[in-house]
Amino acid sequence: MESALVRLVRERAGDRCEYCRMPQAFERTPFQVDHVIARKHGGPTSPGNLCLSCFYCNSFKGSDIATLSPDSRRLVALYNPRTQNWPRHFRWRGAHLQGRTETARATIILLRINEPLRIELRSALIAEGIDFD
Predict the structure, then answer these.
(1) Domain that holds residue 120
(2) Beta bridge partners of 67
(3) Cα 131 to the chain's mean position, in Å?
(4) In terms of Cα–Cα distance, which of 84, 92, 96 is closest to 36?
(5) Rounded distance, CA 38 to CA 130, Å?
(6) pLDDT digits (tens, 9 = 90+) for 24-77
(7) Domain count across the chain
(8) Rounded distance, CA 105 to CA 102, Å?
């Protein structure tokens, strides 16, 4: 991937994971440029289909574009940072991420955003004044 495209994605995201909002500065593993719609599903390598993802979120998302909803058990699309508004779908309750929508709740579960170790890390960062909004 061209360095200019990677730079655009990082700058647009403010060097934060576009799923869990973790800042790159507090992760050892470099963040990855994720194809929101994976290439194997026809997703292009273009700004409108790329987002910045921490290793943790990206490893659980993989090439998935949908998952079963915890609410209805229907197949629902995952949150798309390029076409959907984060605050409309998510909100913080301390270090715990809550889904406002079925899409968000399904994304939180699939990406394991509220695993205990992730909540513990976010709690420590919040205690030091780091904002996740």
Answers:
(1) 3-127
(2) 76
(3) 16
(4) 84
(5) 31
(6) 999 999 999 999 999 999 999 999 999 999 999 999 999 999 999 988 999 999
(7) 1
(8) 5
